[in-house]
Specification:
Rossmann fold, 443 residues, single chain, 19 strands, Metallo-beta-lactamase, Chain A, alpha/beta, 7-stranded mixed sheet, 32% helix
Length: 443
């Protein structure tokens, strides 16, 4: 005789389901909470489990995950989750946790019995989310207008308010259009407004986007859950970057969108999203030649150089000068020379990577006076950033990753001081502080 386990902390609901299912020819086992349900499922090995979502001692999500972890003991188990909450996010999260079906209370008994009669494998096929066919026209990005546009310029945390209106308070996000490619550099909170702009600019069109991540610190990925194009199945979003301390980019993005933190899970986003774990330092995005190098920042952090149509952009938002950092490292006298040589070689490597770029967007979070209290935090003084640009022969420098405590007035003063350094060096280098909405033509 087929058996079904009913797990619900509501005794009346549990009893009513048991009576109805027995009349339909099922042997019914009952459990009054999630933990008892897991124990009885492993003991009796039923054909199906009907499980309430909100219960003490293991909720329905936990029950689903635990039973799927024991798939060898319960190979063909059908799991149906019941809930009185009519939220799509609860349904999606239940399916992600391992449920085959999600039904609302009060339950349609006829539908419930029909689902129990359906095979486990057939139900899975029906529950699978399909990717929408790309029937819309592709969005055409002009290959004749290359530019950089800033959507998020702040470091560490978003800083809205009257003191940051001019330069902006969103965290790192830069749009690059080059040789007909649309590339997004980091997905800080600024990516939300970029997504909205793309929807306005290309209404009813299918977008093909590449998102390059320098690293997975929160201020560089926190805007992604609010990036509207990723929710549309006809768009293609390729996320590329190097693996850090966590195992894989997809895992990192998924964790920040777990139910505890956000109502929509990564797996629920219907956009055609792929994760491309980078291994090589050189790669192409269509006709755009890309190179990458490691920067001096906690964890695995990259800088990217992109070239096409005779234009070049370097994006290095998080970096601490090796030489400046080692000068404050309190090494023993006999080690100072060796350490200084190593730091100089590492700084020279970055200069070679940057050399001759049309646009350099890079870390300028601190002033020299502030730095002594920030050693080892992974960010640079703007004075070092200016010198880096001068030594590398770049044409335009955009001070970036502004300190969250920095007001518009503070930033304007820093830009003035940076320009004085450039003037004293007799260089034609153009220096600006990155500002949200600023569009920089290339070529």
């Amino acid at each position: 005789m087929r058996s079904v386990l009913v797990v619900d902390d509501g005794k009346l609901i549990r009893t009513q389901l048991a009576l109805t299912l027995k009349k339909a020819g099922w042997n019914v086992i009952e459990a009054a909470d999630g933990l008892e349900g897991i124990q009885k499922a492993l003991e009796y090995k039923p054909s199906a489990v009907i499980c309430d979502l909100l219960m003490p001692r293991c909720n329905g999500f936990q029950v689903c995950r635990k039973l799927r972890e024991n798939s060898e003991a319960l190979p063909d188990l059908k799991i149906i989750v019941l809930s009185g909450q009519a939220y799509d996010t609860d349904r999606f999260n239940a399916l992600e946790s391992g449920a085959d079906e999600f039904l609302l209370k009060p339950v349609d008994i006829g539908q419930l019995i029909k689902l129990l009669e359906t095979s486990h494998s057939a139900s899975k096929d029906e529950a699978a989310v399909s990717t929408a066919a790309d029937e819309l026209g592709r969005a055409e990005v002009s290959a004749d207008e290359d530019f950089v546009r800033f959507w998020g310029v702040r470091g560490s945390i978003p800083t809205p308010g009257p003191a940051t209106v001019y330069y902006g308070g969103n965290t790192s996000c830069v749009e690059l259009r080059l040789a007909g490619q649309l590339v997004i550099l980091d997905a800080g909170s600024g990516v939300r407004e970029l997504g909205d702009q793309l929807m306005r600019e290309f209404p009813g069109k299918s977008l093909d986007l590449t998102m390059l991540l320098t690293h997975s610190h929160w201020d560089h990925i926190q805007g992604f859950p609010f990036f509207v194009p990723a929710y549309l199945p006809h768009n293609r979003v390729r996320i590329r970057g190097f693996e850090g301390a966590c195992q894989g980019l997809e895992n990192t993005f998924s964790m920040q969108m777990e139910t505890t933190y956000f109502p929509v899970g990564l797996g629920q986003m219907p956009g055609n999203i792929t994760f491309d774990q980078q291994d090589d330092l050189e790669f192409d995005i269509g006709p755009v030649k890309c190179r990458s190098t490691f920067t001096n920042h906690p964890g695995v952090t990259m800088a990217y150089r992109m070239e096409a149509n005779g234009g070049s952009v370097v994006y290095a938002p998080d970096h601490e000068s090796f030489t400046r950092m080692r000068l404050h490292s309190n090494k023993a006298p006999e080690e100072e020379g060796r350490v200084a040589d190593f730091a100089a070689a590492e700084d020279a490597r970055l200069k070679d990577f940057i050399r001759g770029a049309d646009v350099l967007i890079t870390d300028s979070q601190y002033t020299e006076a502030e730095y002594s209290a920030k050693v080892g935090w992974g960010h640079s003084c703007f004075e070092d950033t200016v010198q880096l640009a001068l030594d590398s022969g770049v044409k335009r420098l955009y001070l970036f990753h502004h300190d969250p405590r920095r007001s518009d007035e503070d930033l304007s003063r820093i830009v003035g001081e940076a320009r004085e350094l450039v003037s004293a060096a007799g260089s034609p280098l153009i220096v600006e502080a990155a500002r949200e909405g600023c569009k920089v033509p290339l070529g």
